[in-house]
Design brief:
The chain is of the alpha+beta class. 33% of the residues lie in helices and 30% in strands. Strands 1, 2, 3, 4, 5, 6, 8 and 12 form an 8-stranded mixed beta sheet that branches. It has a 4-stranded antiparallel beta sheet with strand order 9-10-7-11, with helices on both faces. β9 and β10 (266-270) form a beta hairpin. The longest helix has 17 residues, at 104-120. Bound molecules: adenosine-5'-triphosphate (ATP). Pathway: Isoprenoid biosynthesis; isopentenyl diphosphate biosynthesis via DXP pathway; isopentenyl diphosphate from 1-deoxy-D-xylulose 5-phosphate: step 3/6. Residues 69-147 form the GHMP kinase N-terminal domain. The active site is at residues 12, 139. Catalyzes the phosphorylation of the position 2 hydroxy group of 4-diphosphocytidyl-2C-methyl-D-erythritol.
Length: 321
């Protein structure tokens, strides 16, 4: 019997986040182009006498260790589906900014689904994992799949977007997070000032063909020009200093800049790896962010990085993969 499973899961940035009006159920329809990038959390699942969460990494203190943690919810959901007591220790090593608009909690939910499935040997179909992921939250299915995908509905209905090659991003993190519901609320408030915020008053969210073309052809300049986030004005309204971060990145040579999701992380596109490294250094030195890190994408979604240790038929213990 094996002792633990580790799953690595990436962050996302929305290369486009078009937000429709507030619906009667309180949600907003979106057309989101999710883009997975190489900033990672790792979730390690180990058998335990009860469900337990521990968290390490920057801002770990702001991550709940009670049943509200999305990784705990994932273990409970998968266990309920297969009649298994979710007695596991979930250890989360955070590399994704917390409350940073990069779907860190969703990533951990997806990783816990994959990790518990592997540990318990439930062998859940991909379609079942995706269904459970959508129950956990609108961004969780994309954390499972990774790559680049168009998300519709609340973001959970995914269609893969053909993408050529790799793009170079830089992510500037901020001190303190922004609450996603607060940013949507501010978006509604700003829209009320100019014509209304309901789904009959705001155009139906749609994808920009120029963005899809930039991704299809692997053109970083065109990607940078096509970035769009309908939540950006709201994030800037709640955190005006983010305008300085965006400006610092553009002044330092970024070919595209936007607030990532609900913020406050700011995302920049660079033309290649060398430009991304230089841009990250310039942003860190600018004093307008906590730190800036380069990351490439797209990358795959939640994947096992450590398989059970098994004895080889006639030899030493080796990894199963
Ligand atoms: P999104 O982009 O999906 O809106 P986010 O990236 O802005 O989310 P998260 O890092 O997911 O933000 O954190 C949002 C809140 O979710 C946190 O303040 C925290 O209270 C809660 N949360 C629950 N589970 C986790 C988790 N595993 N990691 C981080 N935050 C979590």
């Amino acid at each position: 019997m094996q002792s633990s499973i580790t799953v690595r899961v990436p962050a996302k940035v929305n290369a486009q986040l078009a937000v429709g009006g507030r619906r009667s159920d309180g949600y907003h329809g979106v057309a989101s182009v999710f883009f997975s990038v190489g900033l990672y959390d790792e979730v390690t699942v180990t058998p335990a006498d009860r469900l337990r969460i521990t968290v390490a990494g920057t801002d770990a203190a702001f991550v709940p260790t009670d049943p509200s943690n999305l990784a705990a919810k994932a273990a409970l959901l998968l266990g309920a589906r297969y009649g298994i007591e979710p007695n596991v220790h979930l250890h989360i090593d955070k590399g994704i900014p917390v409350a940073g608009g990069m779907a860190g909690g969703s990533a951990d939910g997806a990783a816990a689904l994959v990790g518990c499935d592997a540990l318990w040997g439930t062998g859940a179909d991909r379609s079942v994992l995706l269904e459970l992921a959508a129950e956990l939250g609108s961004d969780v299915p994309f954390s499972l799949t990774g790559g680049v995908a168009l998300g519709e509905g609340r973001g959970e209905r995914l269609t893969p977007v053909p993408t050529a090659g790799s793009f170079h991003w830089v992510f500037a993190t901020a001190e303190g997070g922004l609450s996603t519901p607060a940013v949507y609320g501010e978006c509604d408030r700003l829209r009320e000032l100019t014509g209304g915020s309901s789904d009959t008053e705001v155009p139906v969210p749609a994808t920009d063909p120029a963005l899809l073309e930039a991704l299809r052809t692997g053109d970083p300049g065109a990607l940078g020009a096509a970035l769009r986030n309908d939540l950006q004005a709201a994030a800037l309204s709640l955190r005006p200093a983010l305008a300085d971060t965006l400006r610092a990145g553009t002044d330092a040579g970024a070919i595209g800049a936007l607030v990532s999701g609900s913020g406050p992380t700011c995302a920049f596109v660079a033309k290649d790896a060398a430009a991304a490294a230089a841009l990250a250094a310039a942003l860190t030195a600018s004093g307008t962010c906590r730190t800036a890190r380069p990351a490439e994408g797209p990358v795959p979604g939640a994947v096992l990085v450590r398989r059970p240790l098994v004895p080889a038929p006639n030899g030493p213990v080796s990894r199963a993969d």
